[in-house]
Every structure is written in C-alpha cells, then in structure tokens.
Design a protein that fits this description.
By secondary structure, the chain is α+β, with helices and mostly antiparallel strands. Helices cover 51% and strands 14% of the residues. The strands form 2 sheets. Strands 1-5-6 form a 3-stranded mixed β-sheet. Strand 2 (18-23) and strand 3 form a beta hairpin. The two termini are 30 Å apart.
Length: 206
C-alpha cells in the first residue's frame, strides 16, 4: 500500500477505521476517509488528505525519537552496568533458593519472605535493563530514520502508534488541530470497534 498509516487511522466521531481512497482523475489525491461515510453511518465522518496527515505524523515521530535521544544522553545510561546488576541479582536469587542452611535458620516463613525480596529485586533490575535496551533500540532508529524506505517507516509507525484519531473540521483547518495520536506506551484503555465489538461509541474528544 502507498498509504503510510494503513490500519492506524480512525474517525474521532465514531471510532471506526478510516479507509484509503483516491479522488480526482487517475487517483491523484489519496485520502483517508471514515469507513462509515458512504452509508451515512457516521454523522461527522472525517476525511483528510494523505499527504497532509502523513507529513504531520512523520514530524511528530521524529520529534519523539529525538526527544528520547536527548533524554538518554542526559541520563548516561550504562547498559553494561545494568546487565551486571541483573546477573548479580539473578545469581543471588539462585544461590539463596538452594541454600538449605539459610532455610533451616530462618524458618519456612522467614525464608520465603527473604526469597520473595530477592526475586523482587531481580525482577526490578531485569525491567530496568529491558527498558534501557528498548530505549537504545529506539535511539538507533532515531539516527537512521531519515534513511528508512516506505515499508520500514510503516513498520516503525505500527510499533510506535496505537491509533491516530482524526476529527472533522472546516476546510483549511490546521492538521495539528484535527489529529490525536495515541502512542503505544499510552496506558489508557481506549475501546474501538472490532469483529465482536460494534459499539456504539462516544466520540473521542480533545
């Protein structure tokens, strides 16, 4: 597909997916349009030209990646140190779980409590390490994103973005005023139509 945001765009009024269409002779103007516009199922069906929307989203993604790059540079993340901290915590947990002497001295309840503390410490250090590695991968993307081909950029957007909601506005309105991006790390639960969930849904407002 020549459309960059396939599967991500949704009408803010009805929350249904926006389909891909072309207007004009020879299909010269690609647009995203609410999938319920044709049958009148949406009272405020959205439509937006692909060029305007995709350019706006590219800019938001670049800003987000560069922000992560600056944040990581300021924090001075030490991947090697995080690796060592996790490995030491894992070794400590394994050694303690096999230490029958400690189990006899502490008693079953005390030993279980001490084991749980070590497991929690191991888990928190693993989470910190994994988060740092994920961030480092995004930083590598930030440095190379300008060189991505169309398919590579589509894959990147699909990984970074859950939804792009579009609301209807008068002709000529700024794209930034019409678009709400829900990033993949956004913790909010946002219901959208699916194979077994057809609504109706309240409009997404911002």
């Amino acid at each position: 597909s020549k459309f960059l945001l396939t599967g991500l765009t949704r009408c803010a009024h009805c929350r249904y997916s926006m389909g891909r269409f072309t207007y004009g002779g020879g299909g010269k103007t690609p647009v995203y349009r609410c999938g319920r516009a044709r049958n009148g199922g949406c009272d405020e069906a959205s439509v937006i030209t692909a060029e305007r929307l995709e350019g706006h989203i590219r800019g938001l993604v670049l800003d987000r990646l560069r922000g992560l790059e600056l944040e990581a540079a300021g924090e001075g993340v030490d991947l090697g140190g995080l690796d060592r901290a996790y490995e030491e915590a894992e070794a400590e947990l394994r050694a303690f779980s096999a230490d029958l002497g400690a189990r006899r001295v502490l008693g079953e309840a005390g030993w279980q409590e001490a084991l749980a503390l070590r497991a929690s410490d191991r888990d928190s250090k693993r989470a910190a390490r994994d988060a740092a590695y994920s961030q480092s991968q995004l930083l590598a993307v930030a440095r190379d994103v300008e060189d991505f081909d169309h398919e590579g950029l589509r894959d990147l957007l699909a990984g970074m973005i859950r939804f792009v909601f579009i609301r209807r506005r008068p002709r000529g309105a700024e794209v930034a005023d019409r678009v709400l991006v829900i990033w993949s790390d956004d913790p909010r639960a946002i219901e959208v139509p699916g194979p077994h969930h057809s609504g109706p849904f309240e409009p997404i407002r911002w």
